[in-house]
Amino acid sequence: MHLRATLAFLLVFTGSSAVFAQQTTERFEAGVQFTVIKLHWVNEIPVGFGGRFTWDLPRQGSFVLSPEAEVSYFPQNRFGFFGETEVLAGIKAGARTEKYGLFAKVRPGLIHFGGDTFRQIHGAAATNFALDVGGCSSITLRAGSPCAWIWATP
Questions:
Q1: What is the separation of C-alpha 37 from the centre of its chain, rounded to a whole number of angstroms?
Q2: What span, in angstroms and rounded, lies between the C-alpha atoms of 103 and 150?
Q3: Burial class (CB in 10 A: 0-12, 13-18, 19+), 58
Q4: Pair 132, 90: CB distance under 8 Å
Q5: Is the overall model pTM greater than 0.85, yes or no?
Q6: Domain locations in the chain?
Q7: Please, are residues 27 and 51 in contact by the beta-carbon 8 Å criterion?
Q8: What's phi and psi for 80, nearest 5 deg?
């Protein structure tokens, strides 16, 4: 179990296309992020950065269903700790208005532990299954400008 908090500045690249008359437009987002993850079992709290891609499927009203993928890298510090890379891909569903969004998400993936200290203690690098299940919210600061996303997953 780990605690994750991410503050990401998204909408670096945004696009939309028209779909059926009764549905609104589909939208995709790609951007960079800053992330912190608490790994209890190795007693680490690495800080990292990465990228994210989300595609909002055509929607009715405020309901949104979005496949998304994320890659995060936690650089190794001078003591040989950290050095993790995490890749997650899954789905989030929820409601979005012009300014706010509230979502539930499920994203399985992999986390690779490759720091020098981890390899010394465990004898080798390791890649493990990761599962990110929780909720997230979004706040659009201004239409057409970067969006601040705050993620919290217990």
A1: 11
A2: 11
A3: middle
A4: yes
A5: no
A6: 2-153
A7: no
A8: 90, 5
Query: φ, ψ for residue 127 (rounded to 5)?
Result: -120, 125
Give the 3-state secondary structure of the chain: CEEEEEEEEEEEEEEEECCCCCCCCEEEEEEEEEEEEEEHHHCECCEEEEEEEEEECCCCCCEEEEEEEEEEEECCCCCCCCCEEEEEEEEEEEEECCCEEEEEEEEEEEEEECCHHHHHHHCCCEEEEEEEEEEEEEEECCCCCCEEEEEEEC
Decide if pLDDT at 6 tops 50: no
CA distance 86 to 129: 10
- End-to-end CA, the chain: 8
147-153 and 84-96 strand pairing: unpaired
Which amino acid, 128? N
| Tens digits of residue pLDDT in 97-118 | 877 888 999 999 999 988 888 8
Interval 67-81: pLDDT, tens: 999 999 998 877 777
